[in-house]
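Lecture 7, part 2: worked example. A protein chain together with F0G.
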Amino acid sequence: MKVGILARYSDLLPVTAATPAVNLEEGGTPLVRLCRLEKHLDVRLYGKLEGCNPSGSFKDRGMVLAVAKALEEGKRALICASTGNTSASAAAYAASMGIPCFVLLPAGKVALGKLAQALMYGAVVVSVRGSFDRALELARTAAERTGCAMVNSVNPYRLRGQRTGAWEICEQLGDAPDWHAIPVGNAGNISAYFAGYEEFLSLGRSTHLPRMMGFQAAGAAPLVTGLPCPEPETIATAIRIGNPVSASLARAAVTNSGGEWNSVTDDEILAAQKLLASEGGVFAEPASCAPLAGLLKLKEQGCLPSGISVVMVLTGNGLKDPDTAIRNAPLSPVETGDSLDELLSVLSVPR
Ligand code: F0G
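Predicted complex, written out as structure tokens:
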């Protein structure tokens, strides 16, 4: 079997004989049926486990293509701004190809695991005292001045590569789902998924388009309110973005698919994260749990049709944000002495 998305989808991606074979075996992630969660929603519920990608998030799908094309074009270094996952991914691919990587992160607002990744992969990490949106402006200008390849989703290859997520879902399910539920920050991924679904439909490899359901955090919901959000704030730091660069593409995806925008509060996100882990066996980072939080809310409001198929994109691994998880975990460790009696006294085994 071909592994890595450039090899697997060489017929559908802009790769040529001159494109370097960048490959960390990204893609091919599980699409898991979440049976125990279905009782809350009365739908066929699937999670696309993007946290199983090499750097732990969906970003690897677009990054592998962006980096390959940058090398093909003779670029010698990468630059990006990030809420954490893009930087981890860029740093990983830069390391694998032996080129420098500069990452601009909003100071103090990046989950610990993501910061650890960028540092370990050897990227130059710049903590910008400002928002992600400002860091992105700076990265774009710095790319122009220095000739570094800009690997945020303003780079068109990023969104091309991210289409592969939609293709895999169609292959795994045998068709597109009825609903596609996805967290939205800078709005590139929802746009890429919709383009991927449209492409598979036009190739006759699926029979319909899913309704694109975009979920944002209430404190950073410019696409829900219709207005830029100058001071975005949410526990889901991955989607703490006030002025999404792909806003117009994302709006078109939702409108043209008969989808919807919805927002969820931080408390709803944390409750969904616990539910997904404790009843689904899947540990996803807070941003990735916005869709489940939103589906639960839509169900409560009577707005979720019974019996449909729903795919949630679980965009990033829960291990990336251990601080938030430990602060909000349902249980704490039980400490005992080192005797067997003490141990047995805390084990309540069902009979
Ligand atoms: N989920 C996670 C885990 C993310 O890291 C991001 C974006 C999103 C969802 C939203 O995707 O931006 O395409 O709408 N993270 C970017 C980053 C912004 O820098 O890592 P989007």
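Residues 57, 59, 82-86, 153, 183-189, 238-239, 285, 287-288, 315-316 surround F0G (CB under 6 Å). DSSP finds 14 helices and ten strands in the chain. Keep this in mind for problem set question 3.
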